[in-house]
Write a structure and sequence with these properties.
Elements (H helix, E strand, L loop, with lengths): L1 E5 L4 H12 L3 E6 L10 E5 L16 E4 L8 H16 L7 E5 L3 H4 L4 H21 L5 E7 L8 H4 L2 H9 L9 H14 L7 E4 L14
Parallel strand pairs: 1-2, 1-4, 2-3, 4-5, 5-6, 6-7
Helix pairs in contact: 1-7, 2-4
C-alpha cells in the first residue's frame, strides 16, 4: 500500500517506516532533516510539517501515520495544528484505508509539560473526529499513545541513573518500549486491524495503572 509517514529520520517514525518497507509497502516520508533510510521503495521529502504551502504533492495515500512531534515551544503548532493540516490534506479522501496518530500517554494522564499535554490531548479528541469522517470510506482512525520509549530524544533521562531508577519504579514492567515494538503496534493498527476505530490505544508498560495504596498494616 501507499504509506505516508511524518517524522521519519529517527526514533519511532524511522522504525515505523522500516517496518512498512520490510513488508513490501511503498513509503513516503516527510521530515525537516535529510533522509536516514536508503531503500528503493522509500521517497523522502525534506519539509517542515508546519509549512502548509510547500507540503509534497503525494496523492491517493492509503495509510497516513502522523508521527512528527516535538517537546518545546512549538508543541501546539507541530503536535496538533500541523497534524490536523496533514490529515485534512492527505487523509480525508476516498482512497484512505487507515489514519494513525502517534499521541502520548501524557494525553491521558496530563503528567508532563503543560503545552505538550494539551497538544497530545487534542490529538486524542481529533482522532475520534477523523474516525467518524472517514468511516464512510471503510477506513479506520486511531491514536497510538506510548509511554516511555527508548529514543534519542529521551536519552537525557535514560542516561541518568537516579532519574532512571525513579522512572522504573513507576513502570510496572520495569522497562520502556523499543521503537520496534511501537512500530509493530502501528503496523497492526493500520494494516491488520479493520474494525477498531476512534480509539486511543495506551501502550505504557502499565504506568497509568500504577498506584500507591496506603493502609494500616
Amino acid at each position: 500500500m501507499k504509506v505516508l509517514i511524518t517524522g521519519t529520520t529517527q526514533g519511532i517514525g524511522k522504525a515505523i517506516a522500516e517496518m512498512f518497507l520490510q513488508h513490501g509497502h511503498e513509503v513516503f516520508g516527510i521530515d525537516r532533516k535529510e533522509k536516514s533510510i536508503e531503500h528503493s521503495a522509500y521517497t523522502h521529502y525534506v519539509c517542515d510539517v508546519r509549512d502548509t504551502e510547500n507540503l509534497p504533492a503525494v496523492t491517493d495515500v492509503q495509510i497516513l501515520i502522523n508521527n512528527a512531534g516535538t517537546q518545546n515551544d512549538a508543541d501546539i503548532d507541530i503536535n496538533l495544528k500541523a497534524l490536523i493540516h496533514i490529515t485534512e490534506k492527505y487523509g480525508i479522501q476516498p482512497q484512505i484505508k487507515s489514519v494513525l496518530n502517534i499521541g502520548s500517554a501524557s494525553g491521558h494522564t496530563g503528567a508532563e509539560f503543560p503545552e505538550y499535554c494539551a497538544s497530545k490531548g487534542g490529538v486524542l479528541a481529533y482522532t475520534k473526529n477523523v474516525a467518524m469522517r472517514i468511516a464512510p470510506f471503510g477506513a479506520t482512525c486511531n491514536s497510538l499513545d506510548p509511554g516511555g520509549v527508548l529514543t534519542p530524544l529521551n536519552e537525557c533521562v535514560m542516561n541518568d541513573p537516579v532519574l532512571w531508577a525513579q522512572i522504573m519504579d513507576e513502570t510496572p514492567l520495569r522497562r520502556w518500549a523499543t521503537t520496534e515494538e511501537i512500530a509493530q503496534w502501528a503496523y497492526f493498527l493500520t494494516v491488520v486491524n479493520r474494525f477498531c476505530t476512534g480509539q486511543n490505544i495506551l501502550v505504557d508498560g502499565g504506568e497509568a495503572i500504577n498506584y500507591h495504596f496506603v493502609w494500616k498494616d
